Amino acid sequence: MTSEDVITGEAPARYAEALIDLAERAKSLSRVQRDLAFVGQAFKDSDDLCRLVDSPVFATEDKVSALTAIAEKVGVSPLTQQFVGTVAANRRSADLPAIISAFNELVALRRGSQVARVTSAAKLTQAQLTELQSQLKTETGQTVEIETAIDPDLLGGFVVKLGSRLYDASLKTKLEDLRLALKHA
Fold first, then answer.
1. Distance (Å, rounded) from C-alpha 21 to C-alpha 61?
2. Domain ranges of the chain
3. In CATH, what class is 8-106?
4. Which of 13, 43, 71, 127 has the greatest number of beta carbons closer than 10 A?
5. Assign residue 13 a region: left if phi > 0, alpha if psi is -120 to 50, beta otherwise?
6. How far apart are the C-alpha atoms of 185 and 176, rounded to whole Å?
């Protein structure tokens, strides 16, 4: 699992709730959710962006400028641009992936569904995602939205985090379990 899968404090949830309130008042919740998907994808696609927000070497003003420029470049709404800038100005830019994740989870809960975070060793096909979504819906009785991430360290298979439950079908874990079993045999 990556560090963005773990919300280490209450701040991301508070920021996410504030953004939901702002988006609902502006009647643009769906737009903001799409915007955040673009911003989240920018974090997944760019190691340089992750290093920028994590690094104490860069000034807060530089982080604000960079993040608002990226938000503008990908064409997000002014509300989302302002939110991203505010998060960066408050020295929480490194929390943006966690804020986006918390936002998606809160929106899903409001819509009567859940968000499953699926981390796999390689990119899953659309057919695999559809099948997994169907199985999770059967398991939970709710619609399940899927967020994906890739972690080559898993070697094969995938890990699904759904609420407080964790389903680990990764080759890495199976090999570790086998190693422990052989060690104690």
1. 26
2. 8-106, 113-183
3. mainly alpha
4. 71
5. alpha
6. 14
pLDDT band at 87 (very low <50, low <70, confident <90, very high): very high
Q: CB-side exposure of 3: number of CA atoms within 13 Å?
A: 7
Q: Angle at which helices 60-73 and 29-45 pack, to 10 degrees?
A: 110
Q: Tell me the percentage of the chain whose pLDDT exceeds 70.
A: 95
Residue 79 near residue 23 (C-beta atoms within 8 A) = yes
Token pair of 26, please? 């502006």
pLDDT category of residue 9 using cuts at 50, 70 and 90 = low
Could you tell me which CATH class the domain 113-183 is placed in?
alpha beta
Sign of the CA dihedral 79, 150, 105, 56? negative
